[in-house]
Amino acid sequence: DGGITQSPKYLFRKEGQNVTLSCEQNLNHDAMYWYRQDPGQGLRLIYYSQIVNDFQKGDIAEGYSVSREKKESFPLTVTSAQKNPTAFYLCASSLTWSTSEQYFGPGTRLTVT
Amino acid sequence: ELKVEQNPLFLSMQEGKNYTIYCNYSTTSDRLYWYRQDPGKSLESLFVLLSNGAVKQEGRLMASLDTKARLSTLHITAAVHDLSATYFCAVDRVDQGGSEKLVFGKGTKLTVNP
Q: Which of A6, A49, A73, B67 is within CB 3.0–4.6 Å of A55 for a Cys-Cys bond?
């Protein structure tokens, strides 16, 4: 089955630790995205990648980092510099960078205490 | 800067009733998407509206787009409990580099009561 997988589903970390969220897709999509969702809020774009080995900051990139070494993988690292990391993180992909229809993974709920 | 506003943000309705959710956006765009999200789950694509006057229907939901008014509506007909979820609209924007990205509204949390 084609789709987007994110792992883990739930993640707990202590304040001050970096944590990496996984996102893998087998849709052969060029573009991938990371969003953050807070309770009662819409999705806010953290980073996006149009093609392999390229990525751009979104609207709320501070305290986050990404890499895109393979087409199918776009991991997100939440660093200790992110002041309010507890949130629901969603990964998405689209066929190309000029295609706006996006398909979403199941999400990772990160709790930092 | 593109802003997307949904209203209402919370909607409680009885089964069998009709209602409309509104999505207004601030700058020109020809593409609009509606998504559904169940609690703790990901976003499920409902409708893709690609041109002015586009209307799409699936079951008890119908979405329309008026690009001149910068308005999309999601109409619910004879609501049933299974429609309880949060509904998001998202509008396409093109950044300076030509990449297309989505800007999301805050969502409308719909609760359908028996």
A: A49
